[in-house]
Every structure is written in structure tokens, then in C-alpha cells.
Amino acid sequence: MTSAIESEILRDLWYMAIPGQRLKRGQILGKKLLGVSMLLGRDANGEVFAMRDICPHRGIPLSHGTFDGREIECCYHGWRFNCSGACTHIPSLLPTQKFDLGRVLVDRFPCREVQGNIWVFMPEDEHAIPESLPEVPFIPDVDESHYRMVETSLFPCSIDHAVVGLMDPAHGPYVHRSWWWRTKKSMHQKSKEFAPSHRGFTMVRHKPSSNSSAYKFFGETSTEIRFELPSTRIEHIIAGNHRIVGLTTLTPLTDMEVELHQVFYWTIPWLTLARPIVRPFVRTFIEQDRDVVDKQQQGLNEDPQLMMINDADKPARWYHQLKKELVLSRAEHRPFNNPVPHTTLQWCT
Ligand code: FES
Ligand SMILES: [Fe+2]
Q: Which of ligand 1's atoms lies nearest the C-alpha of 62?
């Protein structure tokens, strides 16, 4: 069966903006999120905020300015803005000149720090941010004290190809072929049970496959993998009394640039000691995915018809169905009807 992959970026949802540790108190930084120039900051009290990174006077990014932990001063004419985006001072105005500072406002975006990561709500309409916002994706069993490692990579593709690559089981033995993860020889038939879950689906808790070597370090383990729109994957591993949780987020910076954050939380002390050894493996794994996406783009540039086949591509198909349903349910002002069935998928990897 063929299927064109269209790449609409969903809005009115939270997107991972940056790991919290990369934004210090009193720091601001500018970055693109979904094509929007965004200023991210952390004030003197440690609170995070996000606003459009454009000065309303002449349009220069405010991130070129300075921040004292309370106010941002534009580098061009020194207009000052508080962390809510309100203008507080225009140096060129004489005390006798009447001007309503209340007219000068930078668009502010909802911003939250959850479990060590900073998320920004990207609204459909920047001037009509919904009063009640959805929940930021939440990981059970862990908190900021378990935050152990984060790696970031830039994927040169659309959000849809990045997500489909993330959930695709069939590339493992080819893209991630290595003694410590998969060998081609070890490929065998697998059967995985799936269930619908919040705005997505879950590969229900199971013993990891016998050819997933990396799990073997942790003894008896079980894992559950949950995907949630727009682009969050949470793998929750139970190893005895311990937990290892991988959070993978994909954030479109522009139409053809997706930032991947791979965050790990764990409760195993020896793993913390082994972090310098573990990190290069994580890095390699991510780079393998990035490199294959890079090569894939050479073909996608000619806009070919693509295929989705049988069970191995079912999660990719669900992703598109979930997206469609979210858009439709919003347009029809009705509850979201999860299109994913309870089912078992089989493939050879
Ligand atoms: S452009 Fe920012 S103060 Fe003039
Ligand atoms: Fe992969």
C-alpha cells in the first residue's frame, strides 16, 4: 500500500524546548520553535518564561540584549521588558512626553519546567491562548533527582519522518546493528501487544527481546513504551526495585529541522558511575538514526510515493491516524476518539 507522508505540525500542544540544566538563572537564549523565534529565559527566582524573540520597536531579537534576572534590555535602543513581555521603560522618552507603555507588549508563550525539562506551549493562534491547557507529558516514578543524562541532536527532516523513524521497529537490526544492540543474525519473529493510551498508544509491559543486548546489564527487566502526540516517546524499564526511564522528544525547529532530546532518568547508582562509558553508546545510537534520516532525505527530495506495509509499519500508520483525528476532533469540537485498537503486532527484527 502506498501512502504520501504529509507533514503538518500540530499546534495547541506542548513541545520540549530545552533541558532545564541548559538555562541558568538570569540567562536568556533565543531559538526557533516551530518556526517561531523564541526567547527562553530563567529569572532571578529560577522561574522559566518564553516570549517571542522580536523587539516590538524595530524587530531585533531580544536575545541579543541583556538580562539582569528581572528585565530584558534590547540591545538596539534600550527598551526594557519584564518576564511577562510588558514594556517597562523606553529610555528615549522625556518625562514630559506622553506615551502609554501598556501598548507595547511582546507575545508571551506558556512555559513550564517539568521533571527537569522546559516545555513551551505552541498555540494555534498566539493571540488566543486557550485558558485551560493540556498537561505536559509526565513520566511516572521519576523526578528531577533521577535526571541523569541528556543528549541532543538535530535531524534534517520533517517532523513526520522523524517521528516515524522513532517508532519504526524494523530499522533496528540494520541501522543500529552492533554487538551491543542488534546483530542481523539474531533477527527473529516478535509479537508485541499494543493498547491505546493518552493521545497515542502503548506497547504494553513485556520482557525485552532476547536480542536487545543492552537490557542484559540490568538482569530481569520489563519495559513499557508509550507514544504520545505530538512527538513524545517514554520507555519505562523496571529492573528489580530500580527504574530506568528514557524520554525521547522531537521538536520541529523549522519545517525541515527537528531537534531530538534523549533524556534518561534512573535510580541505579552504578549506572551513574558508568555514565562516561554509557554516554558514547547513547550518542552513537542517536547518530545512527540521524545519519539514516540524512541519507533518506536524498530520496525524499524527489518527493517519491512511499509505502507502509503490514505490522511493522502499523505504528507509523497509527501516528498519522492519531494526528488526523486530533485535527478533526478539534475542528468538530468533539472529544478525541483514539483510533488505535487493542491489538498484537508481529514482525521480524
Ligand atoms: S529595536 Fe529594540 S529597542 Fe529599538
Ligand atoms: Fe533508531
A: 2
